[in-house]
């Protein structure tokens, strides 16, 4: 049943029909009137303006040219075929190139006729050309006359072959808007629209397709971006309000023997000021009676584990158990070791539970957990199993948050009648805008200081020709007692080529660093957990000097004696991954080094990534560069953000608007926490209609 005209299937729009509707659904994911309305132009063209071929001097701008085709040629055959045309105006010639839809375009174009082409010039071998330009016969009438800004919709060769040219989208939008414009619901309260100075939604949706003038386009964009950002914030803050109101948690008012004894007797070093500040913030949360939901951000090596431990000790002091969940077995094992060591001599029971814990040990562990004998449980996803029941779980710490979703967090809650406090730790620095969007429902603490005495890791960029210099350098470091990581980009663990590269790399290293003088650990995803563990262990125990690995060592592994990180094919890694990898060294008192090996062929983004790594060790700065280079959808660990549903707004460019939207979301909920007021009903309706999948945003 169609509830609203905007939910009408797009096949019912005049001129579309079922089979073209199917094509739209497949190619641009548009299946209803409403979705089509949100298929926004990706640019606007001043169709009255033409360029000369001789004026083309940059590969940045979109241009429109008028002229003739003087030659048409198909080069190559099959999958490598391309269509090359020469286009000529009074001032010069330029090539037009197609790799797809060749047959269709060839049929459409005739020699000697006037055409208007539109596209973005590329510089190739010192000359400009156009690949896949838009090409229309000159006499074809402009659809929108008297309107300086003509919308331009992106389309594909496939769509074009079914008649969906950029121009036909203009016709579709005209038809669509004339049918639906009276029924577009407002989504904000009049009050908010007024005080934020926004355009109303109907006008904005019309103007974004057919702007009267540049100003109305700006206002339309502002309004529609505002909606995208505002509703995300409203949802997140509503979650937060509901939790604050409904979810009462235990009050941990006592700082007792566990915490104090540890602090006095076992603390191996002075806390950094940043650690002290964060511990204070956590103490305040735990004592407040509200459930803590705090995100702890801190660069690799900033000492988050200690903060986690001290928080857990507060839970213990108040008669509760605590658990710490890590994303991999290696990390869980490491946390277990670190924490057991730190608690040495104190009457605190700690255990570890992972997928490879044996049955008998498991049964024993379950029993001790349920009786309350066990105080701290460390583990992997295995902690989420139904069988794992706590006596009295008071605090959950989740390390490396981005690998766990909201749903999993919720499953840990269920392990206690009173929801436990939650501390989420991440070493992936997240730019503020992204944090607000992804973790808007959490409070945020930041450790912005490394423990004293750390020397920033020195970073270099080398090419294959420097290989033996690099090997010699590794040798020198090993002679001084240091250890070395070598990491290969095995992004897809089953990719044959990548595996091949890893094998060749290993052979190469083994030849240069032969047994018995040298020993090498090899760790990759195809090893069994037990094998991985024992290889790691040999490295940790200094039985091996070199660890050749894939990115499985990326997070959390702590071997302070390792002072060299060599990253092979570094250009293939993302920035945040490079930063994580580099964080494996520089953990001890010695000067550490990170060597980025790359091929000579670098894309401009690849070069920028390597330059950034060489220039700075500041995780937040790196995260900002990453966000600008890749856009939020691709940031490591935040793939979910693609689901947030941002069509127009950018977390990079619209930081200001995001803050305003968040401010208004706060204000709205402060005045009307349950969104009950009549004037806020449009928002409620919109939230109910909106298809965002909130479960996927963590
Ligand atoms: P991360 O934040 O990456 O999880 P860790 O908790 O693993 O960092 O800490 C990194 C290293 O720094 C560990 O070896 C830890 O013992 C040490 N460390 C933590 N806090 C301090 C401190 N205040 N002073 C000196 N060393 C510290
Ligand atoms: Mg850690």
Ions, cofactors and other bound molecules: adenosine-5'-diphosphate, magnesium ion
What separation lies between the terminal Cα atoms?
A: 32 Å
pLDDT averaged over residues: 86
User: Rg, please?
Assistant: 30 Å
CATH superfamily of the domain at 458-616: P-loop containing nucleotide triphosphate hydrolases
Class by SSE composition: alpha/beta
CATH class of the domain at 458-616: Alpha Beta
Treating each run of at least 4 consecutive H or I residues as one helix, how many helices? 23
Write a short abstract of this structure.
The protein is of the alpha/beta class.
Highlighted features:
698 residues; alpha/beta; OB fold (Dihydrolipoamide Acetyltransferase, E2P); Rossmann fold; seven-stranded mixed beta sheet; seven-stranded parallel beta sheet; 22 strands; 18% strand; disordered C terminus; binds adenosine-5'-diphosphate; binds magnesium ion
Structural commentary:
The structure is a single chain. The chain has 698 residues and is of the alpha/beta class. Helix content is 39%, strand content 18%. Among the domains are: 62-142, Nucleic acid-binding proteins (OB fold (Dihydrolipoamide Acetyltransferase, E2P)), CATH 2.40.50; 458-616, Rossmann fold, CATH 3.40.50. It contains 23 helices and 22 strands. Helix 7 (201-209) packs across helix 8 (214-246) and helix 20 (604-615) packs antiparallel against helix 21. The relative contact order is 0.09. Residues 141-145, 633-643 and 692-698 have low confidence and may be disordered. It binds adenosine-5'-diphosphate and magnesium ion.
């Amino acid at each position: 049943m169609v509830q609203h005209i905007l939910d009408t299937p797009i096949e019912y729009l005049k001129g579309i029909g079922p089979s073209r509707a199917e094509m739209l659904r497949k190619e641009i994911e548009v299946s209803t009137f409403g979705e089509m309305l949100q298929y926004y132009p990706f640019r606007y063209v001043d169709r009255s303006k033409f360029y000369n071929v001789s004026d083309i001097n940059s590969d940045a701008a979109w241009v429109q040219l008028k002229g003739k085709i003087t030659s048409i040629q198909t080069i190559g055959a099959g999958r490598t075929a391309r269509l090359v045309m020469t286009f000529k105006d009074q001032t010069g010639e330029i090539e037009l190139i197609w790799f797809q839809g060749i047959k269709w375009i060839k049929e459409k174009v005739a020699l000697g006729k006037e055409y208007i082409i539109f596209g973005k010039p590329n510089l190739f071998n010192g000359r400009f050309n156009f690949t896949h330009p838009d090409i229309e016969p000159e006499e074809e009438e402009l659809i929108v006359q008297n309107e300086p800004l003509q919308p331009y919709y992106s389309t594909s060769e496939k769509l074009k072959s079914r008649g969906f040219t950029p121009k036909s989208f203009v016709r579709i939008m005209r038809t669509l808007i004339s049918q639906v414009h009276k029924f577009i619901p407002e989504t904000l309260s009049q009050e908010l629209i007024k005080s934020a100075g926004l355009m109303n939604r109907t006008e904005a949706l019309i103007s974004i397709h057919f702007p009267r003038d540049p100003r109305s386009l700006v206002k339309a964009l502002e309004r529609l971006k505002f909606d995208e950002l505002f509703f995300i914030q409203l949802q997140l803050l509503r979650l937060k309000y509901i939790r604050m109101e409904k979810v009462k948690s235990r009050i941990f008012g006592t700082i007792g023997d566990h915490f104090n004894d540890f602090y006095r007797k076992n603390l191996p070093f002075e806390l950094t000021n940043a650690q002290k500040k964060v511990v204070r913030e956590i103490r305040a949360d735990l004592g407040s009676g509200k459930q803590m939901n705090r995100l702890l951000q801190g660069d690799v090596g900033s000492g988050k584990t200690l903060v986690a431990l001290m928080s857990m000790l507060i839970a213990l002091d108040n008669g509760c158990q605590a658990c710490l969940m890590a994303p991999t077995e290696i990390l869980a094992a490491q946390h277990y070791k670190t924490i057991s060591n730190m608690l040495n001599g104190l009457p605190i029971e700690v255990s570890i539970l992972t997928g490879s814990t044996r049955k008998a040990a498991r049964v024993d562990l379950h029993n001790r957990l349920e009786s309350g004998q066990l105080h701290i449980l460390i583990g992997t996803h295995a902690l989420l199993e139904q069988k794992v029941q706590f006596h009295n779980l008071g605090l959950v710490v989740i390390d490396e948050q981005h690998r766990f979703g909201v749903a999993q967090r919720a499953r840990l809650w269920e392990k206690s009648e009173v929801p436990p406090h939650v501390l989420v730790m991440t070493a992936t620095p997240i730019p503020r805008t992204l944090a607000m969007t992804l973790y808007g429902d959490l409070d945020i603490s930041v450790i912005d200081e490394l423990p004293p005495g750390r020397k920033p890791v020195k970073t270099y960029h080398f090419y294959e020709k420097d290989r033996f210099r690099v090997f010699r350098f590794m040798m020198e470091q090993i002679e001084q007692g240091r250890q070395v990581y070598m990491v290969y980009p095995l992004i897809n663990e089953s990719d044959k080529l990548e595996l091949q590269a890893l094998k060749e790399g290993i052979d190469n290293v083994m030849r240069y660093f032969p047994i018995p003088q040298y020993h090498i650990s090899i760790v990759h995803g195809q090893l069994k957990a037990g094998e991985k563990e024992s290889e790691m262990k040999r490295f940790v125990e200094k039985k091996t000097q070199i660890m050749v690995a894939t990115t499985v060592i990326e997070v959390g592994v702590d071997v302070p004696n390792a002072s060299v990180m060599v990253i092979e094919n570094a250009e293939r890694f993302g920035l945040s991954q490079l930063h994580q990898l580099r964080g494996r060294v520089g953990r001890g008192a010695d000067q550490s080094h990170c060597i980025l090996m790359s091929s000579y062929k670098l894309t401009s983004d690849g070069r920028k990534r390597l330059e950034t790594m060489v220039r700075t060790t500041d995780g937040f700065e790196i995260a900002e560069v990453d966000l600008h280079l890749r856009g939020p959808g691709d940031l490591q660990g935040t793939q979910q953000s693609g689901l947030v549903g941002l069509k127009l707004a950018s977390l990079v460019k619209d930081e200001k608007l995001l803050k305003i939207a968040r401010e208004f979301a706060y204000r709205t909920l402060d005045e009307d926490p349950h969104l009950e007021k009549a004037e806020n009903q449009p928002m409620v309706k919109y939230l109910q209609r909106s298809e965002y999948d909130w479960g996927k945003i963590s």
